[in-house]
Amino acid sequence: MRSFSDSEKASLISTAAAVLYTPEGEHFGIVPIEAMAYQTPVIAINSGGPKETVEHKETGFLCSTDATEWARYMMELMKDPSKPDTMGKKGRKRVERLFSAEAFQSKFHKAVTTTEYRSSSWGRIMIVLVVAAFGIVLALVLRSH
């Protein structure tokens, strides 16, 4: 099966009522962030990265592995036509606040200039991780637009 082009992916995500994200234990997962960037709510497994990126009942829903729970949240989105739009807008704001270039720049600046970070080995590790995460997320988000 071929991969979708960036424009096909953008069209699919931006017109969907929701994006279902099922991988368990995913460390970060860019898909929920991409969905929220396109103002599309996310229904995701309540483990790994989605616990950090999706705000339950605000930008989407976090679920157990129970299919009935997933179906209930899908129905909740379908019953209220304004809900996907409201959640989608909140998701977009969350992405801009936490995962934009400005957000990463601020986190990086704090990590570099804060004495506790500069003076500890953990702090130096955090600086490297912030820079790496910034580069990865920025590249993926820019690629998806």
UniProtKB/TrEMBL annotation:
Name of this chain's protein: Glycosyl transferase family 1 domain-containing protein
GO CC terms: endomembrane system
Gene3D superfamilies per UniProt: Glycogen Phosphorylase B
Keyword list, A-Z: Glycosyltransferase, Membrane, Transferase, Transmembrane, Transmembrane helix
Molecular function (Gene Ontology), one example: GDP-Man:Man(1)GlcNAc(2)-PP-Dol alpha-1,3-mannosyltransferase activity
Glycosyl transferase family domain span: 6-94
Annotated TM spans: 122-142
Keyword presence, Glycosyltransferase: yes
InterPro entries: ALG2 (IPR027054), Glyco_trans_1 (IPR001296)
Source species: Lotharella globosa
